[in-house]
Amino acid sequence: ALPIFYLPVEVNGQTFEMVLDTGAAISGLSEATANAIRLRAAGKAELIGNGGSHLKIALAKDVTFRLGGAELPEKSVAIVPYADLEEHEGRRIAGVLGLPLFRRYVVVVDYPSKLLSLYEPRDFVYRGPGERVPLRLGGAALLNAVIELPGRDPLTCNLAVDLGTYSGLRLYRPFLEKHHLVDHPGIDSFGFGLGGEFPERLGRVSTLRIGSLS
User: Fold this and answer.
1) What is the chain's pLDDT, residue by residue, as a tens digit (214 residues)?
2) Where in the chain does DSSP place strands (E)?
3) Three-state DSSP class for 87?
């Protein structure tokens, strides 16, 4: 699993440290950040967090994010209480920069160099040994993958690319029930995310295949 990626983002003229998260359908700001830039709520919504928890959140309109010379206006952002998540992370979280960034730009994350690069899609040409995998961008960035387990036929699945989680691979209960994997060997544990703590089981698969890569 890769570490959570934090980066400086200018929000309506002020700079804050935010999390890069492809698992967020829209970007979000903490209540403290919203207050700092005097952002007014313009609606309410319910957010389903980790473990199926439900959070009441506010929505704000017309927020502009800037990263270096790149600009990302969003018509709607969430105002989210991050206090529990901050306690787990051990640091302040001003907000989350979500999937809209990936819809707008080609995003290259260089973890060893701790560098984020943004490119205009019309100007970007990929050169490298990596596998090209089609993404479906809706409420998440989805791709096709295959999971292999001992003594089982390969399982085709739809996976979301989620930079905001510490799990290398996270399988949800409906998938486990469909393929009779609820009792797959593992160690009972707890995970943590937006919405607090939730139960999980840590286990292993033989192989995860994405394109030609295993």
Assistant:
1) 567 889 999 998 899 999 998 888 889 999 999 999 998 888 877 766 665 566 778 899 989 999 988 999 999 999 988 777 777 778 888 999 999 999 999 999 998 999 999 999 998 999 888 888 998 888 888 999 999 998 899 999 999 998 877 788 999 889 999 999 988 889 998 877 666 678 889 999 999 999 999 9
2) 6-11, 14-20, 28-30, 44-48, 54-67, 70-80, 95-97, 106-110, 115-119, 136-137, 141-148, 155-160, 187-193, 196-202, 207-209
3) helix
- pTM for the complete prediction? 0.82
Q: Which conformational region is residue 157 in: left (phi greater than 0), alpha (psi within -120 to 50 degrees), or beta?
A: beta
